[in-house]
Design brief:
With 441 residues, the protein is of the alpha/beta class. It has a single domain, classed as Alpha-Beta Complex (Spore Coat Polysaccharide Biosynthesis Protein SpsA, Chain A), CATH 3.90.550. It is built from 16 helices and eight strands. An eight-stranded mixed beta sheet has the order 1-8-6-7-5-2-3-4, with helices on both faces. Strand 3, helix 4 and strand 4 form a beta-alpha-beta unit. It is globular. The termini are far apart. The N terminus is likely disordered. GO terms for molecular function: glycosyltransferase activity. This is Glucosyl-3-phosphoglycerate synthase. Keywords: Glycosyltransferase, Transferase. InterPro entries: Nucleotide-diphossugar_trans. Its EC number is 2.4.1.266.
Length: 441
């Protein structure tokens, strides 16, 4: 066997866990399921490219040290700003401690903006400051529930700008504004704070396509496999993927649907983008954040400057409940928000959507989703994963209801919850706002 150029990747030094012995290894602190690793010397990665965007694969030929050296060389003049949106509960969980520990060695990140939300108590803010202290002065905590930031939000609300809805969308938008005040920062990177198996390989692969001088991308989206002893990612596997297949049948000439279909994991919370896009993109304030971000990217940049990157890992983080009986919670709420975002994006492009369209779309979705279940079942059998076909069928039937529920919501309110305006508009109306935001932080 020919050795890998550059030696064995550092990630290969982790233990490989045979399927029959997974339970001998420590359980995930969040899910209590066995944790095992993706890398295997015999794994054969593909290099398939989609037709509209570039896919950067994990070909397992570069080490973490090599990638980080490249990033350091590439960021001599243009700096990286990292956004970490975190809630009080996630801040106190084990994954956040691991992320901070890893980031202490990521010296190529110039500024780390930790946006603390759903944290009404002063103790939440104080504890976050203590936890990020090992990162030094480059870590800034933006307490979105604090009196200073709330006062700035109120100034915008009084001017008719919708920033009253708390959540990840507002946290990300606030962090972007904070980073825009620093002219040295050219690349904005974001990842979630509940990633159980986080390491710097994830961060380096997310940064490098954006900062390397030989590349000219403006947006980079992550993809990965969400697998433990079973497949996760139900909203992507059982709603978004089959829905896009169905939409290609119903709206065969629509380029935005084709664009979404090029992403292997369109709901991933990890992406990086240029300063220009951070300033130009509007940000949804609900569960439509990820799809809404892709819609803004589609609108604001050339498709040849969009890529997706394989983060070379089995990705594990907390899981939402289905909440089949209550469509205002859990994955049902997430599904409806995502569907409404897609419908409204199509309408903004001149696509006419009637009730008959949604009935047809639901029928087409059901057929596509049933095919997906058959495909995932085969994947589970060959990879020795647990697979409950009944649960998958129930999820699909529930998502099918969401297709028409979201259609009714869209028809009753075509505009819906207004996205937060982009920072170009904010800075035009309030020239000193980003400076006030930095002072408040």
């Amino acid at each position: 066997m020919t050795p890998l150029r550059g030696g064995v990747p550092e990630i290969a030094k982790r233990p490989l866990v045979p399927s029959r012995t997974r339970r001998r290894y420590p359980a995930c602190p969040v899910t209590n399921r066995p944790v095992f690793y993706l890398w295997c010397p015999s794994k054969m990665p593909d290099f398939y490219q989609h037709d509209m965007i570039t896919t950067v694969h994990d070909l397992q030929s570069a080490t973490l040290t090599q990638l980080e050296d490249l990033i350091r060389q590439s960021t001599q003049a243009s700096k990286i700003g990292l956004v970490l949106p975190v809630t009080a509960s996630d801040m106190r969980a084990a994954p956040f401690d691991r992320i901070v520990q890893e980031l202490t060695k990521a010296d190529y990140v110039h500024t780390i903006a930790v946006t603390l939300g759903v944290a009404p108590e002063q103790d939440d803010y104080t504890e976050t400051l203590r936890k990020v202290a090992p990162l030094g002065d480059r870590a800034k905590v933006i307490w979105t529930d604090g009196p200073e930031i709330q006062g700035l939000y109120q100034e915008l609300i009084d001017a008719g700008i919708p920033v009253s809805t708390p959540g990840k969308g507002r946290s990300v938008w606030t962090a972007f504004g904070f980073l825009l005040a620093d002219p040295q920062i050219d690349t904005f990177v974001l990842h979630d704070c509940d990633i159980v198996d986080y390491d710097r390989m994830l961060l380096s692969r997310l940064c490098l396509p954006m900062v390397h001088p030989a590349l000219d991308y403006e947006f980079c989206k992550a993809f990965y496999a969400r697998v433990t002893d079973r497949m996760h990612g139900r909203v992507v596997r059982l709603l978004v993927a089959p829905l896009l297949r169905a939409m290609k049948q119903c709206f065969s000439d629509n380029h935005f649907i084709r664009f979404l279909g090029n992403f292997r994991y369109p709901l991933s919370g990890e992406f990086s983008l240029t300063r220009n896009l951070a300033r130009s993109n509007r940000i949804p304030s609900d569960w439509g954040l990820e799809v809404g971000t892709l819609a803004e990217v589609y609108r604001n940049t050339s498709l040849k400057r969009v890529c997706q990157v394989d983060l070379c890992r089995l990705y594990e983080h907390k899981h939402q409940a289905m909440s089949v009986e209550d469509k205002t919670k859990g994955l049902m709420k997430m599904a409806i928000d995502i569907l409404c975002t897609i419908y409204r994006t199509l309408a903004s492009q001149g696509v006419q959507l009637s009730r008959s369209n949604f009935i047809t779309l639901r029928a087409s979705y059901l057929r596509a989703a049933q095919d997906c279940i058959r495909q995932h079942s085969a994947n589970a059998v060959v990879n020795d994963l647990q697979f409950n076909r009944h649960d998958e069928e129930v999820a699909v039937e529930s998502f099918a209801e969401c297709v028409t529920i979201a259609g009714d919501l869209f028809r009753n309110d075509p505009s819906g919850a207004e996205a937060i305006p982009n920072w170009t508009r904010i800075r035009a109306a309030f020239p000193n706002f980003v400076r006030q935001l930095r002072d408040a932080t």
